[in-house]
Design goal:
binds manganese (II) ion, mainly beta, 290 residues
Length: 290
């Protein structure tokens, strides 16, 4: 099989706050564009950061999304959310929340109350996945993917495991349902282990280093909190862990439709974007208390 090589490794940019609860480095679009990263339109990474205890939880108040999906992956800390469809809950460490905003949703995201009271180390990813045009006006949906629902594939020789969130690894499928082909894994590699991954060459493929470091194809080192984007030149790459490591791996088939994006709305045309603002202003995304 042909080797997929690394296009570039990106170090974390200066962080910024989303609300007062998420201190994030932006990697997508980052130094790239939504078109190049298609179907991924945004990736914010809250690298490990210690929050002081606080009675009133930090976070982001009521805000809209339309035309795509938000995927929240919790590594440390807990997030409580509620949305205008009446859904809500807590994302615990190891859990993933896969929210389909589709035709429009309002939600709020805060540190969970008890966790906020104690404070502590917080580490989280929020990934935005674009929706194909025909699904942008669909019903909002929400998948609560608790850690015990993840498909866990053990590597040989106690090399660790691949936690499959979406798509498949070695023929084993993860629990998330998606609207276009997406593979999303947490690879938990033990020191000295090597794992091989294979995705179609044309897919947009990248890794984010959550814990420790890895070597890609025994050629390129990716350090903690760094992001590596692959070329579309081949299918297969290997990750070798010089120390215990956790790696978020994402690969998706480009949707290849025009993108018209502004803030929390991602549509196909400027007219649809204007319509999205009108719909939001007219209260068509429902209602949610502050
Ligand atoms: Mn949001």
């Amino acid at each position: 099989m042909s080797i997929k090589t690394v296009s570039r490794v990106t170090s974390p940019r200066a962080p910024h706050f989303v609300g007062d609860g998420f201190r994030v480095h932006n990697f997508i679009p980052g130094t790239s564009t939504m078109q190049e990263m298609d179907p991924f339109i945004m990736l914010d990474y809250n690298s490990k950061y210690s929050f002081e205890p606080r009675e009133i939880p930090r976070g982001v108040g009521v805000h809209p999304h339309k035309g795509f999906e938000t995927v929240t992956i919790a590594y440390k800390g807990k997030v409580e959310h509620a949305d205008s469809t009446g859904s809500g809950g807590v994302i615990h460490e190891g859990d993933v929340q896969w929210m389909t905003a589709a035709r429009g949703i309002l939600h709020k995201e805060f540190h969970e109350k008890e966790w906020s009271r104690k404070g502590g180390e917080f580490q989280m990813v929020q990934l935005w996945v674009n929706l194909p045009a025909r699904h942008k006006s669909g019903e909002p949906k929400y998948q609560n993917l608790s850690n015990d629902r993840m498909t866990k594939v053990s590597l040989p020789d106690n090399g660790g495991e691949i936690e499959v969130i979406a798509g498949e690894f070695n023929g084993q499928r993860g629990p998330a349902s998606t609207f276009s082909p997406i593979h999303l894994f947490n690879a938990k590699l033990k020191k000295g282990a090597t794992a091989e991954f294979s995705f179609p060459a044309e897919y947009t493929t990248a890794i984010l280093m959550i814990e420790g470091s890895v070597r890609i194809n025994d050629a390129v080192t990716v350090s903690q909190d760094h992001f590596a984007l692959f070329n579309r030149d081949g299918a297969t790459f290997s990750l070798t862990a010089p120390e215990d490591a956790t790696v978020l791996i994402l690969s998706g088939q480009p949707i290849k439709e025009p993108i018209a994006a502004h803030g929390p709305f991602v549509m196909n045309t400027r007219e649809e974007l204007i319509q999205a603002f009108d719909d939001f202003n007219q209260g068509k995304f429902g209602h949610l208390e502050d």
